[in-house]
Design a protein that fits this description.
The protein is mainly α. It has helices at residues 2-14, 18-26, 31-68, 87-106. The radius of gyration is 25 Å and the shape is rod-shaped.
């Protein structure tokens, strides 16, 4: 997440027009004051968009793990037996998924 958000932060900070910086320096502001008073407020929308996209990517990549947690393929007990996931493991997965949904619905 940090690399994705970091790239968007640097890109959005670089996308602030140079005339903003030059005007700030021309009025006598220092480098630190220019960054905090001019550059960052102009770059906040891009930074927030990058963070939201990074969080969305993280959630999307872990969704498959959340939905399949607790499911283990069983070894068939005989030649014609099923190698599918047990009902108990599937039930645990559904409970985990619903718990995850309820947590993020109310938090």
């Amino acid at each position: 997440m940090f690399t994705r958000a970091g790239k968007s932060e640097t890109f959005s900070a670089k996308s602030v027009p140079d005339s903003y910086r030059e005007g700030s320096f021309g009025l006598g502001a220092g480098k630190l004051r220019t960054v905090f008073r001019i550059v960052l407020p102009s770059a906040v929308p891009g930074i927030l968009a990058g963070v939201i996209l990074a969080v969305g990517r993280i959630v999307g990549e872990t969704a498959a793990l959340i939905f399949t947690a607790g499911t283990v393929a069983q070894i068939p007990k005989n030649l014609m037996g099923s190698g599918r996931t047990s009902f108990k493991a599937a039930k645990r997965s559904i409970i985990l998924r619903n718990t995850f949904r309820m947590y993020f619905k109310f938090h």
